[in-house]
Amino acid sequence: EFRRVLFRSALKNARIAWMLDTGQSATSGDLGFCERSEMAGMRLRVAVPGRALARAGAINTLISIAPDDEWRGLSPSPQIAVFSKPFIYQNAEQDDKTFRYVRAAESLKKTGTKILLDMSDNLFADPRRDYALNLLKIADGIVTSSTILQAQIREHSGRDATVIAEPVEGSFATGKFEPPRSSLVTRWLARAGGQPLKLLWFAGQALHFRALMRWKDDLAKLAKRQHLVLDLVARPSAEVEAGVRQFNELGISATLHPWSLAAMEQRFAACDLVLLPTDSTNNHTFTASPNRLVSALWSGRFPIAGVIPSYLELKEFTWKIGRPHV
């Protein structure tokens, strides 16, 4: 309780600016933009901690790294500027936008603002890794989302980062899995369109969808023996919609649901298993946090997951609720 009092006292009226790319020019006293985002990093690493800080008395401001450089007009200067989700753009036309993160950090630091860098993506895998190294050099403090990314930060920059795991969203549910019984009768009924095995996949990034498509042939083989229903919760795009059509052509009853927190709760409640494929050869996804795996477990649904370090850290916990390994 004493620590809690000290925490609230230190944060009362503290001016905190959250610096990120919202894709538009937007300054807001609250973090509603991030709360509505389909990107888990925006919700879990900006909106949720921002709400907690606000309850402790801090004053949050969302600042977009936009062409008009909104951060130049901040008066008084924020005491802390959190650079969250600092994307390193691979498109050369976006080079200037990437550079704005560094320029904003340098300028704000000159005014006495403390710079906190939240690096939850592997920016060292990009050709423009020098931007990441510059931000790490400027930052007064560094946090990250996984131990593997913590090691990457230390290896590339010599800086120490604190691992802060992401909170979990949605309603807690006890583990439940009631698949159709494995028998000749059930299999015959399944082929005839009877009781299906209901699968769920969800993500906010195209990289995760491409990993799912690499499981397409294996799922198609299973669909010949077992009726499969596959719900996908994601932002609609031409790539995802084309993938849904491919699944249906293979005999898998696939449906795309536009992402929302409400849609996630509904789909978790309706599914039997959650598919979480990963691409262990991709440097961005290899260092990802376990937030999607944790969401599935929190919702009482068993995940079939790819192999990345943050998932393997939870294999013992996953075994305890019913699966021998991830």
Q: Give the strand line-up of the largest sheet.
A: 2-3-1-4-5-6-7
Unreliable spans: 319-326
Count helical runs.
15
Order of helices and strands: HEEHHEEHEHEHEHEHHEHEHEHHEHH
Outline: elongated
Radius of gyration equals 22 Å
Helix content: 40-55%
Write the layout of secondary structure elements.
Elements: H1 2-11, E1 15-20, E2 27-28, H2 32-35, H3 40-55, E3 59-64, E4 80-84, H4 95-110, E5 114-119, H5 129-138, E6 141-144, H6 147-157, E7 162-163, H7 184-191, E8 197-202, H8 206-213, H9 216-223, E9 228-234, H10 238-249, E10 253-258, H11 261-270, E11 273-276, H12 283-286, H13 291-298, E12 302-305, H14 309-312, H15 315-320
Parallel strand pairs: 1-3, 1-4, 4-5, 5-6, 6-7, 8-9, 8-11, 9-10, 11-12
Antiparallel strand pairs: 2-3
Helix pairs in contact: 4-5
